[in-house]
Amino acid sequence: MSHTLYNLRKARLHRSELAVPGSNPNMFEKARNSEADYIFLDLEDAVAPPEKINARANIIAALKEMDWRSVGKTVSIRINGLDTHYMYRDVVELIEQVGPHIDTILVPKVGVPADLYMVDAMLSQIEQAKGLEPGGIGLEALIETAIGMANVEDIAKYPNRIEALHFGVADYAASLRSRTVVIGGLNPDYPGDQWHASLTRMLVACRSYGLRAIDGPFGGIDDPEGYMLSARRAAALGYEGKWAIHPSQIAMANEVFSPTDKEVEKAERMVTALKEAEEQGKGAASLDGKMIDAASERMARNVIATNEAIQAAASARNG
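RESULT FIELD:
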């Protein structure tokens, strides 16, 4: 992977990830012009089987006709599952025809690292055949089955292309036979957050191997308070973003996963205070009556880096 490509992937924002069915091309222009950081054009669950082939053609046309990157969008395609007969044509037709316009492939229901290997091998062959940049298209994995969570550490350390893991709570609940009230919501019969253990396990796997951790959908599009609570729980753990299955959820995700002006200002003061302490031969400093040290600086720089990426994305959208 080139140094430029590595830096591009590292700088991507994933606060809001808007799901757009490939079978509904009327939504494409609105998605492109939205405030979402990341768009995944969906060929899987949001598309009925009779519409799969047309949806693929719709996405190819949209990527040929619209410039998504000039408005700061990361473009991903959720292909059909490896257990379907649609998947191989998804990869072949999309990458051969519009590969340079695709940032990542989102692989559903990843259960073992070999699932990623199959898609990775296909991408490498097509890139070679078409003269595309080797490794130019990243992979993201949906962890949404019991076997996927059982193998999440091995999936996270897959060595090629992998950029992020997404928590697919709906299929995960079905896989576990969990009793749910709304997709991504909490069952009042459970004393706490029934998804906490799984979210934490996936997060630790991501951070151990340098991947982004993304929270999945919240089904109550008429329940903004529920969405915000779900997003805040994920953000508190360390997740970088959350799906938006309706445009009304984009602004909420952007708000929750963006540092506030106050947080950015404090982070900058932390870095300054620790630099001054270092110049005095000290390993720690005091800020606002609290001790800060090297670990504090690492947290502060995370906040600053996220804010810089947000500012860069805003500049891209504004031309």
